[in-house]
Amino acid sequence: MLNDQNADIVNATHLNQNDLKMKNRDLNCLLMNHIVVAKLKPFLLVNANEMLSNFGFGIRLPVFSIFKSPQKPTPIAVKFSQTLTMAMATLSAPDNRRPTCPSCSRPPSFCLCTRLKTPALENSIAVTVLQHKVEKKHPLNSARIATLGLKNVDLVCVSDVISEAHFDLHLFESNPEMGPQDSVENGRKIDPLQPADISFTIAKKGVNHDFDQLLVDESAIHGIRNGFTVKKTQRGIDNNYVEEFVIEVPQGSLLLFPSENSIGIEDVNFDVKNLIVLDGTWSKATKMYNENPWLKMLPHLKLDIDKLSLYGEVRRQPKAGCLSSIESIVYALKAIGGEDLEGLDSLLDVFESMVVDQRRCKDERLKFESNVRSM
Predict the structure, then answer these.
(1) pLDDT reported for residue 293
(2) Please, what is the end-to-end C-alpha distance for the chain in angstroms?
(3) How many of the other CB atoms lie within 10 Å of CB of 354?
């Protein structure tokens, strides 16, 4: 009798341990699948409230089920690794991507185009945005508001130096037939065989010493500030040089960037015709500045603004005064003067609405994660 009782106790303990393992496994599945759902929510179309209300009765997802149904206790049919592979395949399929607006790259429910005034603002001061390659696909990139809301704006994508980059500068004053209104893209105004007025090469670790001499060469600085074109070619991992960009920098160009040589708007003593802005995180913008040393030959402008960026709610800002690209453009154009102030403010309104959308989505995601953890 005693041996039979001991056997029953052992069997009961074993069953309890098995039950505990099953519960732990189910909970782990829930948490792991929640991660997938959070990342692939637009593709799986899972309703969070419905998931929570169905907890304990078998959460049913469009692609897979992670619990055994109480009415039909069957084992999990698809392993998590297999499910993840299947979900990622769905994610990578171009036909199943979440639809986005072709102009602003935002989902239809968050489209910025309908919030912008039409026609676009006719800005008298041109804006040239040098956008870091990584920033291009960031969902909170604000430069797209400038490209959509301003008529006189150019956006140039800039990459980090891989191993070596070469720059050729052609000065307008040494090419009288050229002018700020000429198109550089047609290649008619610059003879490919004509040597550049200024050429230099930089390595990944920094610029060569020859360029430092140009920064104190008054004739070179004078020529640069009368307008020029700059072409960047970069040597790739295959040692072949590939052209990255050709930019026309007209006379009266001003770089918006804080440095030791930056001046306030009250000290600008020339007619500003073109504002150059670096679009990226502070570290990326600094890297672009250092890896494109021709920028150092331009007059620099700093904005004396202590206000916090609207970005502060959704993206980390180093300190007060570190603004988003669209905020920097708007405040700089306002400070220089001669622009439609109401039209510029409307661009900030669009940017604020984008931040509000992101803040709401972030709060909903955090609430959902908190509810799942508390189960």
Answers:
(1) 92
(2) 43
(3) 25
